[in-house]
Amino acid sequence: xxxxxxxxxxxxxxxxxxxxxxxxxxxxxxxxxxxxxxxxxxxxxxxxxxxxxxxxxxxxxxxxxxxxxxxxxxxxxxxxxxxxxxxxxxxxxxxxxxxxxxxxxxxxxxxxxxxxx
Length: 117
Prior knowledge:
Structural class: alpha+beta
Mean pLDDT: 87
Shape: elongated
Number of helices: 3
Number of strands: 6
Low-confidence stretches: none
Largest sheet: 4 strands, antiparallel
Helix content: 10-25%
Oligomer: single chain
Radius of gyration: 14 Å
Distance between the termini: 33 Å
């Protein structure tokens, strides 16, 4: 997972030519992206968990979360739904990405930029 996150960071650092936006939504929520007259260029996407509950998407449980899970389908699913479009919505759910870590409350993080048509 650390390699995946490093690749995302490099893609964002070297691939972005305009304002880069990173947003996240908690599991069972929906992220909506709108670039107006521009097109969405997805730089990175991750559905899973890599930080504690206290840091992002707080959740009350006695079971510690798995902090090393990212759905392998994250970037391909978000690209399919958003890349090249002016707007899109993606559900942060196991039904979209699969369940990379059972019994762990997850979130979807998307890094993108709005580019000229």
